[in-house]
Amino acid sequence: MLKILKYSFYDLMRSRWSYVYFAFYLLLGVVLLFLNNDLSKAVITLMNVIIVLVPLIGTIFGVMYYYNSKEFTELLLAQPLKRSSIFLGQYLGVALSLSMSLILGLGLPFIFYGLFKSTAIWDFSLLLVTGTFLTFIFTALAFNIALSNENKIKGFGYAILMWLFLGIIYDGLFLMSLVLFEDYPLDKISLIGTMLNPIDLSRTLILLKLDISALLGYTGAVFKQFFGTNFGLVISFGMLVLWVVSPLMRIIFKSKRKDF
Amino acid sequence: MVNIQDLHKAFGKNQVLSGVNLSIKEGGIFAVLGPNGSGKTTLIKSILGMVIPNKGSISIQGKHIKNNSSYRQHIDYLPQIANFPSNLKVKELIKMIKDLRGKTTEDERLIQLFKLEPFLDKKLGTLSGGTKQKVNLVLTFMFNSPLIILDEPTSGLDPISLLRLKDLIQAEKAKGKTILITSHIMSFVEEISDEIVFILEGKIYFKGTVSELKTKTSQPDFEHAIASILTENHA
Lengths: 260, 235
Hints:
The complex is a heterodimer. In chain A, 85% of the residues lie in helices and 0% in strands. Chain A is an all-alpha fold. Chain A has one domain (2-153, 170-257). Chain B is an alpha/beta fold. In chain B, helix 3 (106-113) runs antiparallel to helix 4 and helix 7 crosses helix 8 (222-232). The longest helix of chain B has 16 residues, at 159-174. The radius of gyration of chain B is 18 Å and the shape is globular.
């Protein structure tokens, strides 16, 4: 698996898109710092961008890489390699190179701005950690979609729909259901609802860490009570790990049964 | 060497292989023939484990291939369409495959044989079809495996390379290897193969030597013998 990982990673590092992605984050970091003139404020703005954009990039890159490396995959399949190591190797190659672009692209400007001397360092680290989690989650979901769809156009369509659903539609439905059932106690439901969507979960985690949960009103208090504790934190990171592991299990399962 | 029992495979509603029984002994050149869509490539891909059969079993060198990947160490495979990652250089691809499968020194001799030196630093995406096929041949023949599977090895090759390929195949046979070939070029098949396996509608229709086929169909030459099978079965 490590050899496949090495080649996929190497292949991606040479492709233009990794640099575009890296340059984009570099620019974003610099511009935000320049406009906000303050590390903590830049972190909040950055969160809003990352929470939506990282899943989108992970999804598109994942699907694109899978379809583009079809030939490479077929070449590897005839070699004495396990299917699971071929696909996991490719997946890790994509996810790692994307995470690296994210961490370096955002990290460099913040470090030069004096991140290590600032109190925002933990907030910023949490931001990068959740960003990395989101990359791993959405790349894995994208690989799943691509594995199940031979047709590229369909695969792309489903992948974008998935991102749209988890990133935007889910929130809408969630809010509507909260309004609809406002006469009932909703703390537990909304907690569970948040847990079930990796994007919402990441957003909540960061918001609470940033100590602006007062903006969230009563729900914020309930959330703070839950996520603020160590137990809540462990559960939420457990959920994120689960969101990475379960699509990976399906990749292994699906790839074993697929014809090439 | 290769033992296939009651192999079934369907892609959706399209039943491609329906009960293939085939045993191939060690040593010699076997040609797998059949009309388009008869299941030749599916059969070969099943042997390689790229296609998962619905039913039936395959064993290679006495070992079942299900849920196994190490047996492919003993197979050299030439895919039908030489599709390679287009942003890799020829040199890098050869290095990568060597890295994945183990050391060999044969590659240099083969590169010389097919006159590929000027292309080593070119990207695979920029190569012509014939040159790609030559790279494909180098990758296949550079390892010393007892079973060689060639899917349409002649496609896109110029006459000189074709001659070299024939010599190469004969040389491998002389080492006692088993070689499985599919081809649509009948003269090539007739010249090179020891035995023929004819697939029709997902089953083995005939297995034997060229002269046996001629007697069976009572036709004077090989091409007409094949044609008569096809017209009789209105395929």
